[in-house]
Amino acid sequence: MGTLIGLRQSVGHTYAALAADHGLSVDAAA
Fold first, then answer.
1. Which segments of the chain does DSSP mark as H helices, in order?
2. Does the N terminus or the C terminus of the chain have fewer Cβ atoms within 10 A?
3. What gap in Å lies between CA 18 and CA 2, rounded to an integer?
4. Residues sharing a CB contact under 8 Å with residue 12, sequence separation 6 or more, in sequence order
5. What is the model's pTM?
6. Residue-wise pLDDT tens for the chain (30 aa)?
7. Domain containing residue 27
8. Apex CA 11: angle with CA 9 and CA 15, to 5°?
9. What's the pLDDT at 18?
10. Contacts of 15 by beta carbon, 8 Å cutoff, 6+ apart
11. Total structural domains within the chain
12. What b/e sequence results for 1-27 when a residue is b if at least 16 CB atoms lie within 10 Å of its CB, and e otherwise?
């Protein structure tokens, strides 16, 4: 379960970084 949570956080961080590059707000996704 801890691994799944860590994976979700990692994916969320990556998505947030990519979205930030495009000037998008992803507060809800993070």
1. 2-21
2. N
3. 24
4. 29, 30
5. 0.38
6. 578 777 778 887 787 787 777 776 555 555
7. 1-30
8. 115
9. 79
10. 26, 29, 30
11. 1
12. eeeeeeeeeeeeeeebeeeeeeeeeee
